[in-house]
Every structure is written in structure tokens, then in C-alpha cells.
Amino acid sequence: MYLIKKICCIGAGYVGGPTMAVFAKNCPDIEIEVVDINQIRINAWNSDDLTKLPVFEPGLPQIIKKVRGRNLNFSTNVSNSIREADMVFISVNTPIKEKGVGAGETSDLRWVESCARQISEIAEGHTIVVEKSTLPVKTAQTIKDILFSSNYQTSEKSFSVLSNPEFLSEGTAIRDLEEPDRVLIGGDDDEAIKALNDIYLNWIPQEKLIFTNLWSSELSKLTANAFLAQRISSINSISAICEVTGADIKDVSFAIGKDNRIGSKFLKSGPGFGGSCFKKDILNLVYLAKFYGLNEVAGYWRKVIEINSWQQKRIYEIVVEKLFGNLVDKKIAILGFSFKENTNDTRESPAISICRNLINEGAFLSINDEKVTEEDIEKSLKKDNFVYGFNKNEPCWEFQSNLYSAFENAHAVIILTSWDKYKAIDWERVSLSVKSPFWVFDTRSILDIKNIQDLGFNFWQLGFGNNN
Ligand code: UDX
Ligand code: UDX
Predict the structure, then answer these.
(1) What single DSSP character describes residue 192?
(2) Active-site residues (predicted)?
(3) Do residues 32 and 202 lie in contact, with contact meaning Cβ atoms separated by under 8 Å?
(4) Which pLDDT score is estimated for 98?
(5) Quick one: average pLDDT of 2-20?
(6) At residue 384, does pLDDT exceed 60?
(7) Nearest ligand to the CA atom of 169
(8) Coil vs helix vs strand at 400
(9) Residues contributing to the annotated binding site for substrate
């Protein structure tokens, strides 16, 4: 029987930080250390000011306040933490490879591999290594091969490898971790499985724990994300049909969601899915299918990504068309830059491609977001309009922390993220400062059409067939 007294989690990101905070809260007898090579990130996790945590997640600061310094610590001392740990979670990033074999299709495993090498070298006694990062199927074998290679093996050192994919959704991560639909543990070492199972039993009922072999666990994670993404592409494809035929996507979603076999979740049409997982995981699935010669399967899943990109392109083209085919010298207010509400994460946000295209047409963007910082937007959008081919000695976008200032002298507004604040905009106040004619583009279907049209604004809502 393995007794778990100390846990090390490598990677203090959107997954590692919140996950370990909830572990620490529910397992006061286990000492948990989250380690990361990024000193700035660790400093932010250790900040006294809880609004400065690197991850914005509702409910997280309250938990951090309770457990940090008690049984949860954040540090850059990776080696020390691995050495002392009975269980090590790997929660480092696994972006899509940019170069070489599988570029643009499969995950770059260099960080997972370096973690495995470091664990293999440094760990002492028996260590259970748990893959938390979403990984291509069979990555656990790579980790095993490294851990069990003879170089560092001694009689006092041994390992078990488990897969325990994370299903949390950003913005609701704490609730998802506290009350998950299920917890999946993949592996073949019964004692290691029991050790992880017992940790979860501190707050999760046994019937929610599912056990499979390693490959099924890895593939289940990819498949869950692929299915969720596929629902979004499906409903988004129907949104385009609604617009040209006079139906309303909100009604269609509601009507089909009432069928228990379909269910009502993940049926909101919008500017397409973003986030660090969906696209990457489908690409991994496509790569896997192609590798095994299953070209039809690969083609099927690739379409889900294509529809997603098309939806973003389609929205930008509609904006251009409505604004008389010309965006030069026009100011557009952009409401929302995060990939969804209640997170400060911008990875793969639909706002990135839509904004780039608008800037390319010559528009000046005034961008507001509840939690994303100007610095983060700058990583995705260049400020210099020369880069976009416009010969003006002035920036092509600005960050506007004041929502109403973003509207001043604007020709249009595009809602890209459904932050609550945008649902309660004072449109009368807006009407005093914008240009006329003024367009409102609602890609998240959060506005009341009548309210807007009564003020004389032009209104376009995604998937709404009676747009003017
Ligand atoms: C990541 C993956 O993107 C996702 O596929 C997986 O499911 C979980 O882990 P996330 O936590 O959102 O998700 O990533 P990110 O916020 O980028 O955090 C990863 C952290 O790992 C970074 O802070 C990075 O500095 C750290 N890291 C990376 C290490 O500490 N060591 C390394 O060798 C590499
Ligand atoms: C997702 C999975 O939900 C989670 O289980 C997994 O662990 C990681 O990937 P996340 O990317 O954080 O989580 O957020 P999610 O709520 O799934 O939203 C993903 C994207 O889909 C967002 O851009 C969101 O706006 C979009 N979306 C979601 C829709 O457009 N319509 C919907 O109905 C739901």
C-alpha cells in the first residue's frame, strides 16, 4: 500500500494551480507543492494581493487564502519538490508542435519528456507519476520508457504511471473540481490506482470514480473534448442556415436541447470555440487517425476545426459588408477578448483572428475586457499599423478599461465574449457618443434586439434570421 503524504505538481498554470488548490482544501493531511520554472508566475501565486493571482477563476482566491501556507505551497524549486514527493502530477503545457514531424498537428511533448527525465533522475523511493496534461494517446508509454530506463534505476527507486485527465472548464474550474461529473483514472498498477482513488475519496463519492487502462483514459480525454467541440461546430453551422432562412438559432438550440438524447448543454452558437484544448485535442485525434491510415476518421474531425475557423471568418466578413465594404478610418469597439467569460485566458480566442482581420481592413479597434490585460492582448495583436499594411503613424488598436469610452465616436461594436457586464449596457448612454449609422454585432446572442433597435441602431445577431 502506498501512503501519500507529499504531492508535487509540475506546472502552475490554469490546470495545475486550481486543481491543486482544491486538492489541498479537501486533503488537509497531504502537503502539496506546485512548482514551475516560471519565477514570475510563482511570485504571482504567492502574491499577498489575491487579485494578482496568475489565473482568474471565480472562487479560487478564497481557497488560496485558506490553504496557501497551510498545506499548499508554490515554488520554483522543482528538484527538491520531486525528491520529497510520493506522487508527482505532470501538468505542463503541451502545445501543438510548430516544426518538424507532425508540425501543426500533434502536441509538442518536449516539456513532458523533460519532466519525465527529471523525475527519473531525482525521485527517491516509490513515486507515482500522474499525467494531468492532455496528451496524445500512448504518451504514458513515453513517460514509462523514460522512467523505467536503466540509467537512473536503483533498487531504492521505483515508479508507477497513471493517467488522470482533467475535465475542468475555465471559468467554472472550482465547481468542476469540487463536484466533477466523473474522475477518470487510467493505469495498470492497482496499488497506485488505489492511492489516487483514496485521495479523491476525501470529497468525491466512489461511484464517480472510473477506472480504465492508460490508453483508454488518454483517448477518453481527447474524445470528450472532440465531442464538445463538435457540438459547437454543429450548432454554428446551423446558425448560418438560420441567418439566411429566417429561423432563430436560440429557438432551434432550445427546441433540440429539450430532447433528452441531445441534451441542452453546449448548444450555444457563437464566434467559435477557443481555449487551449479543443483545437489541440482534435488535431491530436486527426494525427492519430492518419497515423493508423484512418483517413475518413481524420477528415471527419478535421471538418470540426474547419467550421470553427470558417465561423470566425464569416463574422468578420459580415462586419465588413454591413459597414459598406470599408473599414478604413472606422473605429470599432470590441467587447471581450478572452476565449469565454469568467477567465483571463486568451489562448485560441476567436477574438484574435476576428480582430486581426478587422485591423487588416484598416479598422481602429478599441478593446475592452473584464479580466484580460493590455499586455496579454499585445501578445496576439501587433499595435503598429504598418505591420498590417497601413501607412499611418499611429496604433491600430487601443485597450480601453472603461467600457463606455470604447464606444466614443465608434461606428460599430462587436460583442465577442459574454461577460455579464455586457448584458447590462446602458444603450441610451452609448447612443450619445457613437457615430451614425451605428452597428451592433452580437456574436454571443446576449442582447435584447428590441432594446437596441428602438434606439435606431442597426443590429446583427449571430444566427438570427431577421437581421436588418
Ligand atoms: C496545460 C496544457 O496546455 C493542457 O493541455 C493540459 O491539459 C494541462 O496543462 P494549462 O495549465 O492551461 O494547461 O497550461 P499553462 O497555463 O501554460 O501552464 C503550464 C505551466 O507549466 C506553465 O506555467 C509553465 O511555465 C510550466 N512548465 C512548463 C514547467 O514548469 N516546466 C516545464 O518544463 C514546462
Ligand atoms: C474545455 C472542456 O469543457 C473541459 O472539459 C476540458 O478539460 C478543457 O477544455 P474550456 O476550454 O476551459 O474547457 O471551456 P469550455 O467551457 O469548454 O468552452 C470552450 C469554448 O467553447 C469557449 O470558447 C466557449 O465560448 C465555446 N462554447 C462553449 C460555445 O461556443 N458554445 C457552447 O455552448 C459552449
Answers:
(1) H
(2) 277 (nucleophile)
(3) no
(4) 87
(5) 97
(6) yes
(7) 2
(8) coil
(9) 167-170, 221, 266-270, 274, 340
Nearest ligand, CA 227:
2
Look at residue 363 and tell me whether its pLDDT is greater than 80: yes
Rounded to the nearest integer, the mean pLDDT of the chain is 94
Q: Are 453 and 279 in contact (CB under 8 A)?
A: no
Cα atoms in the Cβ-side hemisphere of radius 13 Å centred on 225: 28
Distances (CA, A) of 235 to 3, 197, 240, 445: 47, 37, 9, 13
| Residue at 272: amino acid letter | G
Fold: same for 6-212 and 215-468: yes
Per-residue buried b or exposed e for 210-241, using 16+ beta carbons within 10 Å of the residue's own CB: ebeebebbbbbbbebbbebbbbbbebbbbbbe
pLDDT at 468 over 60: no
Taking CA atoms, 32 is separated from 76, 184, 186, 201, 456, in Å, by 14, 21, 22, 17, 57
Which class does domain 215-468 fall in? alpha beta
Predicted structure pTM score? 0.94
Question: Distance, CA 77 to ligand 2 centroid (Å)?
Answer: 33
- Indicate the fold that domain 6-212 takes in CATH: Rossmann fold (3.40.50)
Q: What is the dihedral of CA 230, 232, 238, 244, to 10 degrees?
A: -140
